[in-house]
């Protein structure tokens, strides 16, 4: 598949060609050990990078496991693997893919569920991240394929329930198309990054994504309940927590998305209304439904447990924050820090613009805020460079920003 040349990537480019079917058709789903062994053999005999994608059932299932794994390699074609039918054992694929560069789009979304299957890349190319580094304003797979290759992908099943079996034919078409052009897109993006002098930057970014440690569990995840900002009473917060935890246990045990068990809005309404009987509970929106009536005793038990808590057991209004305050308060709290942040933001925005980069890809905003609020003892360029390195910044980022950030850390408030 040929990539569009830089000259064709513009307002006068031809109308993109709608791609509705894979060139070689949709292969049968690999769902037996024998078929998996055959697929692994074919992939191992293939050449070049391997396009990789997964389909999950977010919004339907509690887990973020992969319900379909799509692979494509020159000489092997497209392979669609059903890890559920195979009991999660995709062992034959591990040696088959061991030495290949993997090409994914938004790799950080897929790598965790692939790791659950013991599939981990030795090398990585992330086409979405490549698009960001290239300075493109739209970096979805469809947008990049259209811009760089001149094709338009038929989209429509990304939010489907991929735990459904059997998988419908049109879903499999969609899944196969997601890897159909991924290698060609990788080649086109590599050429673009090389043209812009950013290919080495991209390799550093890809390696950082590949080797990133899993995020630690979020402290008190119930505080992310949508609409919780309307709950200010500690006793009501305890009710939100109790209902959230009851829902989470129920959802995890049945592998259901929590929002399908009980919407966040209903948790907040029940915490505010504080119903004490089943009649009061089912009078609330949603709780009167047939399924919720069956679960009424579970929700009432959670609410009763929250009411019985001693005052010292109630949750704090908010989590302790180890970071700096919101920037709009800096001028009053610490004018010197506000001056540092203002100069740093201006300098980084200028660097990002000159290099055709999103400023958040140049340096993480949270790292900039923390550095300006609590500067290192050594504010020299070398000292700032070491701080950035210790905090996980890549060498290309440090080379672009250390001098400017060092200068900003010496800024003083204007009289």
UniProtKB/TrEMBL annotation:
A Pfam family the protein falls into: DNA_pol_A_exoN
Stretch list, region Disordered: 1-23, 311-333
One BP annotation, GO: nucleobase-containing compound metabolic process
Residue ranges annotated for the HRDC domain, each copy included: 233-313
Taxonomic superkingdom: Bacteria
PROSITE patterns reported in the protein's UniProt record: HRDC
Molecular function per GO: 3'-5' exonuclease activity; nucleic acid binding; nucleotide binding
Name of the protein this chain belongs to: Ribonuclease D
Organism: Saccharopolyspora thermophila
Gene: rnd
């Amino acid at each position: 598949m040929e990539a569009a040349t830089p000259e064709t990537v513009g307002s006068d480019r031809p109308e993109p060609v709608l791609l509705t079917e894979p060139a070689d058709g949709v292969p049968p789903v690999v769902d037996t050990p024998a078929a998996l062994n055959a697929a692994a053999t074919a992939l191992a005999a293939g050449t070049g990078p391997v396009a990789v994608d997964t389909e999950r059932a977010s919004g339907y299932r509690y887990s973020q496991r992969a319900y379909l794994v799509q692979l494509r390699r020159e000489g092997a074609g497209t392979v669609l693997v059903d890890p559920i039918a195979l009991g999660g054992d995709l062992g034959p694929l591990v040696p088959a893919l061991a030495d290949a560069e993997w090409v994914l789009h938004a790799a950080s979304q897929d790598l965790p569920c692939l790791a659950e299957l013991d599939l981990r890349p030795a090398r990585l190319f992330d086409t979405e991240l490549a698009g960001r580094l290239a300075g493109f304003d739209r970096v979805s797979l469809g947008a990049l394929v259209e811009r760089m290759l001149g094709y338009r992908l038929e989209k429509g099943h990304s939010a489907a329930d991929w735990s459904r079996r059997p998988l419908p034919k049109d879903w499999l078409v969609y899944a196969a198309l997601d890897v159909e052009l991924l290698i060609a897109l990788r080649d086109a993006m590599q050429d673009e990054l090389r043209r812009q002098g950013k290919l080495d930057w991209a390799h550093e970014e890809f390696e950082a994504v590949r080797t990133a440690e899993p995020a630690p569990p979020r402290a008190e995840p119930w505080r992310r309940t949508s609409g919780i900002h309307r709950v200010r009473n500690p006793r009501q917060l305890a009710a939100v927590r109790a209902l959230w935890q009851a829902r989470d246990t129920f959802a995890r045990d049945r592998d259901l998305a929590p929002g399908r068990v009980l919407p966040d809005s209903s948790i907040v309404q029940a915490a505010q209304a504080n119903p004490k009987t089943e009649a009061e509970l089912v009078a609330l929106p949603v709780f009167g439904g047939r399924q919720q009536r069956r679960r009424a005793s579970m929700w009432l038990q959670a609410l009763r447990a929250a009411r019985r808590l001693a005052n010292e057991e109630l949750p704090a209004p908010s989590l302790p924050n180890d970071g700096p305050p919101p920037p709009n308060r800096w001028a009053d709290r610490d004018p010197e820090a506000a001056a540092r942040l203002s100069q740093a933001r201006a300098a980084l925005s200028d660097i990002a613009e000159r290099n055709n980069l999103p400023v958040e890809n140049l340096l993480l905003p949270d790292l900039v805020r923390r550095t300006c609020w609590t500067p290192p003892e050594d504010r020299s360029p070398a000292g700032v460079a070491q701080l950035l390195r210790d905090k996980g910044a890549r060498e290309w980022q440090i080379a672009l920003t250390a001098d400017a950030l060092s200068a900003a850390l010496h800024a003083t408030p204007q009289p």
